[in-house]
Amino acid sequence: MKKVIALFVAAVLTLSLAAGCNSYTGGDKESEGSGDELFTCLAGGPVTLNPILSQSSNDGDVFYLIYTALMRMYQDEVLYDAAESYEHNDDFTEYTFHLRDCTFADGTPITAQMFEYTVYCMLTPSFGCGNADVYYMLSGAEAYNMSEEDGDWSTVGCKATDDKTLVFTLAYPDTDFVTELAANFLIPLQQSFVEEKGDSLGSSVENTQCSGPYILTDWQLESSLTFEKNDKYWDAENSFPVKKIEMVEVDDANTKVAMFENGEADAMFVVPASYIDHLGDEVTTSPANGINMMWRNSQGTNGALMSNANFGLALSYALDRESMMNSINPTTAPAVRVVSSMFQNDAGVNFHEAYPVDYVGVGGDVEKAKEYLAAALADLNYASVDELPTLRFVTYENSEQKLIAEAIIDQWKQNLGISVTLEQYTIGTAIGMFYTGDFDIFDIGIDVGVTCLSTMDSFTSGGSYDNGCWHSDEFDALIKQAKNTLDQSERFALASQAEQLMLSEAGIIPVFFQGNAIAAHDYVENFVVSTIGAGWQFNKLHVNK
């Protein structure tokens, strides 16, 4: 099954979990009482609030507020939520979680069976979940999910042994399992509610069952969302101090900034790059946990051309990513790697320094690109580049994404003589086109995951992005071997081999590592963006006005 493409999620750090996790503590008590009645923020809205079918990390931002999770992330730290403790066996193949007393907003107790039911929904083929592979580390999960019909759930390593105990049995040792659970935000679903709502689950306020720090009280599609504090949340007294939150969607950059400057909004997610200097000290920038990359459709009308590795390398080598991203959005980092540099080995050396690759630099190499293009033309019996078809470049609607796509297309035209047309669609339509293969080149951002293997694992057979664009048995074997070792040095070395293979065969074309740029007025405290996992992380937010 396929997983969603995450748009605005942030880049990750490898976290050690052996030392355990921290429970929530509230915001600075000295700041309380000086506001916190209302927080208004400019941000992107969700596509759907159906947690089984969610297709965007924008959805995950909302989930962070309205659901209690088993574990959750806050500023790259794993925190307990519904779980109050856990333990694992010696070889990290079994994890047991113990739940605290907590409820849905209507007072219904949350049980371990509800978390098991959520994993059941995610993995059972008939539910059609796009995120199923995030639980493939569970014993029997991949085989169960990849079957043509719903199979025997007892074969999957997720079991509620009583109302308060949830046991996961893994297919391989995984020291990062708790971080993965927290980053992927495992929530409880009540079976009776899911069955009652059916296809309408998560389509409106009435069809959403809240259990988290806030209750969704109003949702105007593509306009605004309103949240009010949930007093029944287990840690309501000590965390998430703001009583009411209004999230407003505004597409136009000028309008968005004007609303912020006029005081109509207290804060803004995703500051337009052209306004970062203008807003000055009110802006905070940081690396994000996403990478923007391009897929080539090897199954479409122009499949023979798009599956040719030399042609893919020509497209990649022709790009001057450094100049392009510096001029469009300097908060990003031009990417010629698949694995983020934020991952470090045991010696504290980042992955890029420890494991360099043989690939193009961020400034590109036009002469080498022309050599690859000539080789591709010879491979496919084209007499000249003029005989190549005009290619369709598909991406989502966004003004900055339009500038990037146009710059890429222009470089291909100027450096290689290749003709490409740009098509932009709403995010839901664009993702649908990705999965149906209605493109030649598709560009979007994805989450780089929790470990150095996370992104690449999504490209293995049956992974999130195994949609026929690229496949390698050797690559699959390397990732499988890496996942099955607890030795970090060996795991990193295997990951490096897999990354080199993916780049050498142009399995994907990396463009840039995403960056965060957020803005808040000086009376707003603890308005943060995490570098791991999605979520409007307002755990300690204060509005002092």
Low-confidence stretches: 1-33
Mean pLDDT: 90
Q: What separation lies between the terminal Cα atoms? A: 48 Å
Strand content: 15-25%
Number of helices: 17
Helix content: 25-40%
Describe the sheet with the most strands. 11 strands, mixed
Q: What class would the helix/strand composition place it in?
A: alpha+beta
Large-scale geometry: globular
Using only C-alpha atoms, the radius of gyration works out to 23 Å
Work out the number of β strands. 19
Walkthrough of the structure:
This protein is an alpha+beta fold and 545 residues long. Helices cover 28% and strands 19% of the residues. It is built from 17 helices and 19 strands. Strands 1, 8, 9, 10, 11, 12, 13, 14, 15, 16 and 17 form an eleven-stranded mixed beta sheet that branches. Helix 9 packs antiparallel against helix 12 and helix 16 (473-483) runs antiparallel to helix 17 (488-504). The longest helix is centred in the C-terminal third of the chain and has 18 residues, at 399-416. It starts with 37 loop residues before the first strand and ends with a strand. Mean pLDDT is 90; it is low at 1-33.
Could you give a quick summary of the protein structure above?
The chain has 545 residues and is of the alpha+beta class.
Describe the secondary structure blueprint for this structure.
Elements: E1 38-42, H1 57-66, E2 71-74, E3 77-80, E4 83-88, E5 94-99, H2 112-123, H3 141-146, E6 158-162, E7 165-169, H4 177-184, H5 191-197, E8 214-220, E9 224-229, E10 244-248, H6 253-261, E11 267-268, H7 276-279, E12 283-296, H8 303-306, H9 309-317, H10 321-328, E13 333-334, H11 351-354, H12 366-379, E14 391-396, H13 399-416, E15 420-425, H14 427-436, E16 441-447, H15 454-457, H16 473-483, H17 488-504, E17 509-520, E18 524-525, E19 542-543
Parallel strand pairs: 1-10, 1-11, 14-15, 14-16
Antiparallel strand pairs: 2-3, 4-5, 5-7, 6-7, 8-9, 9-10, 11-17, 12-16, 12-17, 13-17, 18-19
Helix pairs in contact: 9-12, 16-17
